[in-house]
Every structure is written in C-alpha cells, then in structure tokens.
Amino acid sequence: MKKIMIAALTLGTTVSANMAMAADITPEQSRQQFVDYFKAKSPSIEFNEYGNGVYNYNPDQRMQWQAAEEFPPYLDFIDAGEALWEKDQAVYENCFGKDVTKVRVMYPRFNEKTQKVETLEGQINQCRTDAKLKPFGWKKGDIANLSAYLAYQARGQQIDVKIESEGAKKAFLDGQAYFSKPRGQFGLACAECHVYNAGRRARGNTLGPALGQTSHVPMYRAKWKELGTLHRRYEGCDKNMRIVPAKVQSETYKNLEFFEAYMANGIEINGPGYRE
Amino acid sequence: MLKKQMKHLLTVLAITTAMVSVPTVSNAAGKNASDIEQGKELAFSRSKGNCLACHAIPGGNLPGNIGPALIAMKLRFPEKSDLFDKIWGKPDKSMPYSMMPQFGHNGVLTDAEINKIVDFLYQL
Q1: Looking at the annotation, which residues of A are catalytic?
Q2: Is the pLDDT of residue B15 over 70?
Q3: Residues of B in contact with A4 (CB under 8 A)
Q4: I want to staple A187 with a disulfide (CB 3.0 to 4.6 A). Which of A121, A182, A255, A268 is the partner?
Q5: CATH number assigned to the domain comprising residue A201
Q6: Of A187, A197, A204, which has the smallest distance from its Cβ to B66's Cβ?
C-alpha cells in the first residue's frame, strides 16, 4: 500500500525532487498508477462511480444528492443553453460541427498548431469572437449554460483525452505540477486534499477524489444556485488554500484541466452534476 | 423608592465585588488564564490557526479528521517545547507528506501566538 502511494505520487508532494522522475514515466503510466491508487484506497468503489465525486464517500450525503438529481434544479439552465445554441446555430455548427452530442467529448484537447490546450469554454468564446459576436463572461451564466447543454447531450460517452506529441505531454506535466506542488502559507497542494486525504473531512466538508473531477462539468452548486464552470471551482479551491488563484481560462488552468481530464479517461460524461 | 435604593445598592455591590474579585482571579491563575483563553481563540479561529479544519479538539464544533485528535497533549509531548516545535514546523518535527502546516516557519502565526496555543493545548 505504502509503495503504491509513493508510486502514484510520483505525482508527489515533494515535487521538486520528483519532477525529474515524473518526466520519465509516460502520462499513460501516471494515469494507471493514479487509478490503481484509488482502487487500493477504496476497493469497493466502481471505476465509473468516480464521476460522482465526493458522494462515493458519505452515504447520507449520497442519499440527499440522489434526491436532488431526481428533480435537478439545473434543467432550466440546460434549456437556456439550448436556446443560446439555437440563436447562433450557424456560427457554432461552423466551429463544432452539426452533431451536438459530439462537442463535449472533443475537449479538452491539445492543438498541435498553436501548441496550446483548448477547452470547451475557451473554444466557445473563440468561436464567437471569430464570428464577430460578443464573447460570454467566463465563469457562469451564458457560458456555463451553453457548456451544460453540450455536456448533457454528451452524457454516457467516455472521456477520451489524447496525448500524442511532446507538446501535449509537456502541457500534461505542467498541469500535473500545478496539481501536486505545495503552495501558499499552508503549503497545501490539490493532491493533499483530493488524493491523499480524499474521503476524510476538512471541518464539516468531506474531501472528494481527484479522479473524475472533470466528468460532470459545468456543475450546479446549491451554494451558487446556478451553474459554474470547472475553472470557477479551481479558483475557489485556490482561494481556500489562501493563494492568489490563476486566471480562469489561463494557460495554467487549461493545462490543469487537461491533466485532470486525461487522468479521468474512460469515465462517462455525466454533466452537469449537482453539488452542494 | 425603596426599590430604587435597593437596586442602586445592588449595582454598587456588584461593581465593588467585581473590582475586588478581579485581582483575586488574576492572582490565582496569573497571566496564564487569559493566555489559555487567547490560545483557544487562536486555535479555533478560521483566519488564524483553524486547527479544527483538520483536528478534533475538546470544545470545538464540526472538526475535520485529517489529523489526529488533539488530546492528552502532556502525555504525547512530555517536553512542552516539542509541542511548540511541532506547530512551528521545525524540520525535524515535520512528517513527510503531512498536511500539517508549518505555522511558524511559514509566518502564519507568530511565536507569541504559537506559545498561547501551546498553553491552551497543554492543559487539555
């Protein structure tokens, strides 16, 4: 067990020492170790269940969550997203193709020409500005509603992020470093809460697993009473760690999303998800 | 009228007894009592120690369970200075891969603040 932990966290907390090693193993080996780590940690949780995040760890919360998902409060937002798609349909079809069920699964992806990661939200706004339309705000509202509509249409398909070049591998490693590097006054890393201590409680909050964190985005949060993007959530956790967050849709967060999504390969898309 | 006088008398009494009792208290427990109280506040406050995020501590609500419960600290740390060093984050007291913040090392808390927290924990 100890051995698995150390291996899985070649993604380690002592990143400086481990980065050289991390570069030596392939992203696919990293992913396999990551999945094995969670399997060893909680043998009874089915792989695909990691799309349901923190609700794997707490039966009471899981029951409340299932009840919420029966009459989900996000349906109106999905309808709003559909209306947005239809309003500028020709523009979007030009960028993403005619099949709305096939958009979510394309992202995040590495663009070999620009040598940068593309996210769904980033490309929605890129598509709009290319067509001389006003871009949406980044974290909530229209962008989240349209993204949620596309996620909903893609439900049931598996996350399938590809790394096929040195550039893509570099973006992955950059995201991995952000994920595992201790930062700020508390010396905390994402990995501390969402890998080593997943399932434990920080105050009253159970810590969810990092595996599958991108399956159900954007998410509806009871706390927000609306949808928010994955990067909005990244920003929130960075702030909780008392560090200055990166900018949403910056290269830093895009690489982080690329890393997390690659780690979640094979998990079914189930967005938008309800969270507390 | 009588009632009013009574009330007045009671107030005066209350004030004088208060005045009398203050020195008694501080003589008995010394500076320590308020240090312990301040230490508790520092440990529980979300903007300071926020120890409850990770530790159960007697008297604290909704604790996390990332770290061990902070009880029987005298048994655990016979040397009071070891407890200080642990919270301060001296390298030889830090565990690899631990989420325990290095409060002094990283400047989250001053040495004086850590000392008060130690006073509070040491009597639990």
Answers
A1: 237
A2: no
A3: none
A4: A182
A5: 1.10.760.10
A6: A197
What would the 3-class secondary structure string for B32-66 be? Answer: HHHHHHHHHHHHHCCCCCCHHHCCCCCCCCCCCCC
Residue A200's region, left for phi above 0, alpha for psi from -120 to 50, else beta, is beta
Other beta carbons within 10 Å of A98: 9
- Number of Cβ within 10 Å of residue B18's Cβ equals 9
Q: What is the ipTM of this complex?
A: 0.81
Question: Which CATH architecture does the domain made up of B33-122 adopt?
Answer: Orthogonal Bundle (1.10)
Q: Please report, for residues A41, A51, B56, the alpha-carbon distance to residue A198 in angstroms, rounded to integers and kept in the order given.
A: 9, 14, 18
Which of B52, B64, B101 faces A187 most closely, judged by CB atoms? Answer: B101
Which one has a higher pLDDT value, A21 or B39?
B39
The residue range of the domain holding A188 is 25-276
The answer, yes or no, to whether residue A90 has pLDDT greater than 80, is yes
Provide the b/e sequence for A147-166 (b: ≥16 CB within 10 Å).
bbbbbbbbeeeebebebeee
Joined tokens for residue A133:
């339309």
CB-based contact (8 Å) between B53 and chain A?
yes
Instruction: Answer yes or no: is pLDDT of A38 > 60.
Output: yes
For A54-79, write each residue's pLDDT tens digit.
999 989 999 999 999 999 999 999 99
CB atoms within 10 A of CB A2: 6
CB-CB neighbors (< 8 A) of A197 in chain B: 66, 99
B64, A200: Cβ pair inside 8 Å?
Answer: yes
Q: Identify whether the C-beta of residue A175 lies closer than 8 Å to the C-beta of residue A255.
A: yes
Q: Give the number of domains in chain A.
A: 1
- CB-count exposure of residue B67 (10 Å: 0-12, 13-18, 19+): middle
